Amino acid sequence: MTYQTIRWEINDGIATLTLNRPDKLNALSNKMTEEILEILPKVQEDDNIKVMIITGAGSSFCSGADIKERFFQKIEMKKKGEMWDELLHGFTEKCCQHMSKITKPVIGALNGMAFGFGATFALCCDIRIASEDLKIGYGFVRMGVIPEFGSSYFLPRLLGIAKACELVFTGKTLDAREALQIGLVNQVVPAESLMETANKLASNLAKSPPISMQLAKQLLYQGLNTELNTQLRLEAMALDACRGSMDHEEAANAFLEKRKPNFKGK
Question: How many angstroms from the chain centroid is the CA of residue 261?
Answer without folding.
Answer: 28
